[in-house]
Amino acid sequence: MSKEEYTISSIKTYEELMKYLIYYNNYFEPTLVDMVDSLQEYCRKIHNKANVVEIKNKENKQLGMIAFYANDKINKIGYITLVVVDKEYYGRGIGTRLMQYCEEYCAKCGMKKILLEVNKNNMKAINLYKKMGFEEIDQYKKINSIYMEKDIS
């Protein structure tokens, strides 16, 4: 997919973000609804405090989105809270481009590392993150998830 075929932009409203979280709910294992206490509160939190961007094709169809924090000015650690790509567009570099955008943004904000958590059974995501230079860390052990980080300094 060439750069001319898609655009990356911020998701501006709570309602638009909630619409996409509901649409992508079943893309996650476990589902988003099962992972968070309240989907409405999760949506409100990332809408108010995170950077949430979407990638669309030239027909204006959303292909995926990423939500991340780049506001830890003390530890200089960015945190990816959500990455999702429409299943119809798997394998087309959409996830890679979203991750690159996040990394560039975090670097501009002075972050030195990016941290993320991923379900240990989500091999598609784990492989993408490894390809992007993320490494597993043992610092935050959980039963069903893996933490990964990347040095971007």
Concise synopsis of the structure shown:
The chain has helices at residues 14-24, 32-35, 39-49, 94-108, 123-131; strands at residues 6-10, 51-57, 62-69, 77-85, 113-119, 135-137, 145-151. The chain is an alpha+beta fold and 153 residues long.
Topology:
Layout: E1 6-10, H1 14-24, H2 32-35, H3 39-49, E2 51-57, E3 62-69, E4 77-85, H4 94-108, E5 113-119, H5 123-131, E6 135-137, E7 145-151
Parallel strand pairs: 4-5
Antiparallel strand pairs: 1-2, 2-3, 3-4, 5-7, 6-7
Tell me what you see in this structure.
33% of the residues lie in helices and 30% in strands. With 153 residues, the chain is of the alpha+beta class. It has a 7-stranded mixed beta sheet with strand order 1-2-3-4-5-7-6, sandwiched between helices. Helix 1 packs across helix 3. The two termini are 28 Å apart.
Broad shape: globular
Which residues sit in consecutive blocks of at least 5 with pLDDT less than 50? none
Number of E-state strands: 7
- What distance separates the N and C termini? 28 Å
Give average pLDDT, whole number. 93
H-E string: EHHHEEEHEHEE
Strand order of the largest sheet: 1-2-3-4-5-7-6
In percent terms, what proportion of residues is strand? Answer: 25-35%
Structural class: alpha+beta
Q: What can be said about the biggest beta sheet?
A: 7 strands, mixed
Radius of gyration: 15 Å
- Number of H/I helices: 5
Give the % helix.
25-40%
Using brief descriptors, characterize the structure shown.
7-stranded mixed sheet; 153 residues; alpha+beta; single chain
